[in-house]
Amino acid sequence: MNSTPPFSLVGIDHVVFIVDDMQKALDFYGNVLGCTIGYSYPGLGMEQVWCGAALIVLWDITHPGAASAVPPVSGGRNVDHLCIATTPLDHERVRAHLKNHGVNIDREAFHGGARGMGHSFYFFDPFGNKIELKGPAEYPDGRA
Questions:
Q1: What is the DSSP string of the chain?
Q2: Which domains does the chain have, with CATH numbers?
Q3: Using CA atoms, how far apart are residues 110 and 23, in angstroms rounded to an integer?
Q4: Contacts with 73 (C-beta within 8 Å, 6 or more apart), sequence order
Q5: Quick one: which of 56, 63, 53 has its CA closest to 28?
Q6: Per-residue pLDDT for 122 more than 90?
C-alpha cells in the first residue's frame, strides 16, 4: 500500500561528520570550502558551519560531551560522502585551489545529481570524510 507522507521534502538540512581536531576541521571547512561559522554547542564538542543554506555539523569525538558520537567500531563511518552543489566550476581554478590547500583530488566525474548531469570533484577532508563538489547541470545544447 502506497501512502503519501504527511510532509514535503525541501532539501538537505545538515550532515554530521565525526572529527578529532576541531580547529583543523574549522580551518578546512572555512578555508578550503568557504563555509561560515554557524551554531556552536561547546558542551557537546560540536560546531556547525553554513554550507549555503545547509549545515555541516562537526562533532569532535575527543570532547567528553561527544561520547554518544563515538563509532562502535574503530574507524567505523556513518556517512559515505557529502555532495555540495556549487555555482559553475572553472575546473582549472578548482584544481589549483585544492592543490594550494594541500588537498588531493581523489577523482573527477561527470554524472547525474539532483540538478542534472554535471562535473564533480571528489576529495577527502582531514578526517577521511569524502566530499563531492558538484557543479550545476551542463547541457549539450547550452541551455541553463
A1: -----SS------EEEEEES-HHHHHHIIIIIT--EEEEEETTTTEEEEEETTEEEEEEETTSGGGGGGS-SSTT--S-SEEEEE-S---HHHHHHHHHHTTPPEEEEEEE--TTSSEEEEEEE-TTS-EEEEEPPP--TT---
A2: 14-65+79-134 (3.10.180.10)
A3: 33
A4: none
A5: 56
A6: yes
| Digit-coded pLDDT (tens) for 20-73 | 999 999 999 999 999 999 999 999 999 999 999 899 999 999 999 998 888 877
Written in H, E and C, the secondary structure of 41-59 is: ECCCCEEEEEECCEEEEEE
| Cα 44 to Cα 122: distance, rounded to the nearest angstrom | 29
Tell me which amino acid residue 73 is. V
Amino acid at 87: T
Q: Which residues pair with 20 in a beta bridge?
A: none
Set of cell numbers at residue 107: 577523482
Yes or no: say if 19 and 78 are a contact pair by the CB < 8 Å rule. no
